[in-house]
User: Which sequence fits this backbone?
């Protein structure tokens, strides 16, 4: 108990004695983790956006003109028999014209003189969860194209693929930048701990002389590093949250990207905790790195 | 207790100790004498495992120093007490905290720590200064705090390197009396000094070193062999 008390006191004394370098270490760690956090937040939101857009992928199955009711039923049966299909909605030629007028009232004149049914009838196919990948959608489209009565199949594949590719590049980018910033964080914290370590070199020499083990001496420094990491991580989280709220406010005020409000979100609690835990782990690892030689030396 | 077999220790290419063979038995009082650079401190450092011999073997309490793992060195040191010329106290801590440190390191229970520290402080006559900051007491008192810290965990061996180096004659006498009392309790004492007063008063076995070699190992000091003393 007395030993734990001593170690706690020593840690607090270490932090207090080196409060300036600890403060600098905390701020730099916070900014470094926040840099990674910004990137991660961007990645997180784009991934969510891509996910929600993928959820909304619809396949349009256009029918040949004047397809008989029997054929329409046949196409419906085929579609409903596909595992990848969650629901099917039929839009008749008349409904298609009505929808066009509703959606594009200013361009209504475009259909003038093209007869009563200028637009084809179609099925709007909503995909079942887990079947939204471009390969599976492509497979479904291929099969549907061969069904009698189907003229052509269309789905918004290209830009979804592009978004998916962008997200995967972002993923790699986040990983690389994350690694670089992790090394930077480790270096910053390790140097802060090393400063604290050198400031108390004489004391460490005395502790060694009277039989303190390397781990006994190292504990306050490792705890100091962990503290630095946790506070840095927490501060970075606060910076990120503040920055995120300002960004969202500006976005709302500008009126751009309306409708994206529901998609753009800050990290959930688990990821926020993970960010602080990352700080803790980086801090502990950095200080262990600084005092490693101490644990191995015998002098 | 302590055995050196043809021990040589180099620092860079300079031999700090050359071919030293000696044996110290339990309860002995050994005075290492010789001029600066004779190898006294190196010899003590080898005993407490701060250095390893380049040649030869050292056995301390049947443990081979050369083969001792770095992680085992602290446990060897816990069986020893150290008194150094520059005191090596933690100046910002109190006298009590300084003396308690070896016990805290070993995980001794709180009540036991208080009891043993009080005993050690009484033994050196400093119980009344337990709450004072180590930096705030006089040099003689600091050395007595250092001795209290060295004896607080009842060491088997007490090593001292020039313990009176910074003290005047009166204070030196006080410290000698303390060492005599510690030795009288059965503790093996090894004391490196080139203070004639210490050698005369301690009346221990005198090992004289010069340029890293044992020049003489002649038993207790007396008027007849005083010429061998520094």
Assistant:
């Amino acid at each position: 108990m007395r030993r734990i008390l001593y170690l706690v006191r020593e840690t607090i004394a270490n932090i207090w004695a080196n409060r300036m370098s600890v403060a600098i270490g905390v701020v730099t760690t916070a900014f470094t983790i926040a840099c990674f956090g910004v990137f991660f937040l961007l990645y997180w939101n784009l991934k969510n956006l891509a996910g929600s857009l993928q959820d909304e992928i619809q396949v349009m199955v256009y029918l040949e003109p004047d397809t008989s009711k029997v054929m329409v039923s046949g196409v419906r049966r085929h579609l409903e028999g596909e595992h990848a299909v969650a629901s099917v909605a039929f839009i008749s030629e008349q409904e298609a014209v009505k929808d066009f007028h509703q959606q594009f009232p200013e361009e209504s004149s475009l259909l003038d003189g093209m007869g009563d049914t200028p637009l084809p009838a179609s099925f709007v196919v909503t995909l079942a969860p887990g079947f939204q990948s471009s390969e599976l959608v492509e497979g479904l489209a291929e099969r549907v194209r061969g069904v009698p009565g189907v003229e052509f199949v269309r789905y918004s594949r290209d830009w979804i693929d592009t978004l998916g590719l962008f997200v995967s590049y972002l993923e790699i980018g986040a990983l690389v930048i994350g690694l670089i910033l992790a090394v930077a964080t480790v270096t910053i914290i390790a140097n802060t701990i090393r400063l604290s370590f050198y400031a108390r070199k004489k004391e460490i020499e005395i502790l060694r002389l009277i039989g303190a083990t390397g781990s006994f001496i190292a504990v306050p420094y490792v705890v100091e590093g962990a503290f630095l990491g946790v506070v840095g991580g927490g501060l970075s989280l606060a910076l990120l949250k503040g920055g995120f709220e300002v960004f969202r406010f500006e976005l709302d005020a500008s009126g751009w990207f309306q409708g994206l409000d529901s998609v753009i979100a800050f990290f959930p609690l688990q990821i926020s905790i993970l960010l602080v835990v990352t700080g803790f782990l980086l801090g502990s690892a950095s200080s262990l790195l600084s005092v490693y030689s101490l644990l191995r030396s015998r002098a | 207790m302590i055995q050196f077999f043809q021990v040589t220790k180099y620092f860079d290419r300079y031999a700090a100790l050359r071919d030293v063979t000696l044996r110290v038995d339990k309860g002995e009082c050994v005075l290492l004498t010789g001029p600066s650079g004779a190898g006294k401190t190196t010899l003590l450092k080898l005993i407490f495992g701060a250095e390893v011999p380049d040649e030869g073997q050292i056995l301390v309490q049947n443990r081979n120093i050369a083969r001792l793992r770095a992680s085992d060195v602290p446990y060897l040191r816990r069986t020893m007490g150290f008194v150094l010329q520059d005191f090596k106290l933690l100046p910002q801590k109190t006298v009590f905290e300084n003396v308690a440190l070896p016990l805290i390191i070993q995980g001794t229970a709180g009540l036991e720590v208080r009891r043993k520290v009080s005993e050690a402080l009484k033994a050196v006559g400093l119980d009344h200064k337990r709450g004072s900051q180590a930096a705030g007491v006089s040099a003689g008192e600091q050395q007595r705090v250092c001795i209290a810290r060295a004896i607080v965990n009842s060491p088997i061996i007490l090593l001292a390197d020039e313990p009176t180096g910074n003290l005047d004659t009166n204070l030196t006498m006080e410290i000698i009396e303390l060492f005599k009392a510690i030795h009288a309790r059965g503790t093996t004492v090894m004391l490196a000094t080139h203070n004639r007063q210490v050698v005369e008063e301690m009346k221990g076995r005198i090992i004289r070193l010069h340029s890293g070699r044992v020049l003489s190992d002649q038993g207790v000091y007396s008027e007849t062999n005083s010429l061998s003393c520094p």
Q: What stands out?
A: Chain B has a mean pLDDT of 88. The first strand of chain B starts at residue 2 and ends at 11.
